[in-house]
């Protein structure tokens, strides 16, 4: 893959991870039962961005984990903050565990892409060996 393309994917994946961090924030908001109508709208928006970015990333990079099914299952299990606020603590912990597995999976892919980008850079950078 060309360096420029890898760097674009890295940029998208870093933004995608930001959305996953926001999703975690919303899980905590639902748990605390402190949210309003605007929060519900933002929650639905972040879910739609996650789905769209997931599709874009998976169309560009071959990924075994997290799978599209894992991501979709997680997102469909939390239809709204209101529904989340009515969920028992054990189910919320399970949801957090699923979120964490996906989040770590995306970070692993990001690390692999960064290695590809470094390998594709011309020699002579900060870490190059001088002969």
What's the gist of this structure?
This protein is mainly alpha-helical. The chain contains five helices and no strands.
Textual characterization of the structure:
This protein is mostly helical and 131 residues long. It has five helices and no strands. Helix 1 runs antiparallel to helix 2 and helix 2 packs antiparallel against helix 3.
Structural class: mainly alpha
Per DSSP, what share of the residues sits in E-state strands of 2 or more residues? under 5%
Approximately how much helix is present in the residues? over 70%
Mean pLDDT: 92
Task: Let me know the largest β-sheet.
Answer: none
The ordered H/E elements are: HHHHH
- Rg estimate, integer Å: 18 Å
Uncertain spans: none
Global outline: elongated
Number of strands: 0
**Cα-to-Cα separation, first versus last residue:** 28 Å
Count of separate DSSP helical elements: 5
What are the defining features of this structure?
elongated; single chain; mainly alpha
Give the topology, please.
Blueprint: H1 3-32, H2 37-60, H3 68-76, H4 81-85, H5 89-120
């Amino acid at each position: 893959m060309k360096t420029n393309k890898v760097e674009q994917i890295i940029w998208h994946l870093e933004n995608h991870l930001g959305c996953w961090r926001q999703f975690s924030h919303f899980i905590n908001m639902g748990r605390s039962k402190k949210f309003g109508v605007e929060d519900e709208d933002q929650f639905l928006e972040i879910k739609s961005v996650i789905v769209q970015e997931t599709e874009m990333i998976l169309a560009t990079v071959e990924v075994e984990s997290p799978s599209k099914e894992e991501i979709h299952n997680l997102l469909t299990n939390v239809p709204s903050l209101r529904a989340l606020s009515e969920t028992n603590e054990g189910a919320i912990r399970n949801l957090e565990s699923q979120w964490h597995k996906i989040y770590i999976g995306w970070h692993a892919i990001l690390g692999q892409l960064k290695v590809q980008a470094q390998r594709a850079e011309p020699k002579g950078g900060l870490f190059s060996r001088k002969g």
